[in-house]
Amino acid sequence: MAPQPVDRQRWDEIELVVLDIEGTISSISFVKDVLYPYALNELTRLARDSWDDAATQDLIQAFPAETRTDADTLIAHVQELTAKDIKAVYLKQLQGHLWQTGYTSGRLLTPLFPDVLPVLRHWHSSKLKTLAIFSSGSIHAQRQFFSYVKDGAQTVDLKPLFKEHFDTVTAGPKNEVESYVRICERPGNAELTMEDREKFPVIRSLEEVAALG
Asked: Does Amino-acid biosynthesis show up as a keyword for this record (predicted)?
């Protein structure tokens, strides 16, 4: 059966558009193949070079006590969480701090899917929709992510486009059904089931939604 179409009347009534990051406006591979390894490498360097520094200990204070007995134990724990993509709040908070160094130094730049930036700017400038982000990454990490976005040969700050940021601390678990009102297909995302396709509108590009107004 064909996917459910987007309900135009319902879309016109929506004032707030809540977007995820990974697999929705930016690729899963950027997060898993660039951001995660960067954070792990930075943590490894900090843990082994400055384990006893107060700044390092402050960064890992929220980790379970048994995982921060020494540098190797901590690194092994973070490697396991990362490999299993376990979205522990304390890990997400740490990653946000580690990514900040990469972004401010220019070693990290955020790539968005090609359709995303024009649509976000259109919604924001036309005041058609208010934009918000809900991601498992910490709010601090989200702000870093949107501060250094590739736009051709330029780097742009997109934070002003978003009115609100939510993470799993401020909004609750992402596996709650109430957290999702759209299902988006993006390269690298898991294939949707036929049941999903019949039950939800399937959006492959933000341009499909932007065309509604």
From this structure: yes
- Whether residue 173 contacts residue 160, with contact meaning beta carbons closer than 8 Å, is answered with no
* Residue position matching structure tokens 């501060």: 147
Contact between residue 112 and residue 68 where contact means Cβ atoms under 8 Å apart = no
3-state helix, strand, coil in the chain (%, to 5): 50, 15, 40
Token pair belonging to 52: 């006893």
Does the pTM of the predicted model rise above 0.70?
yes
Q: Which two tokens stand for residue 16?
A: 């707030």
Rounded to an integer, what distance in angstroms lies between the CA atom of residue 45 and that of residue 39? 10
Provide the sign of the torsion angle of the four alpha carbons 190, 117, 112, 87, taken in this order. negative
Confidence of residue 162 (pLDDT cuts 50, 70, 90): very high
| Range in 84-88, 180-184, 198-202, 207-211 with the lowest mean pLDDT | 180-184
Structural domains for the chain: 8-26+111-210 (3.40.50.1000), 30-105 (1.10.720.60)
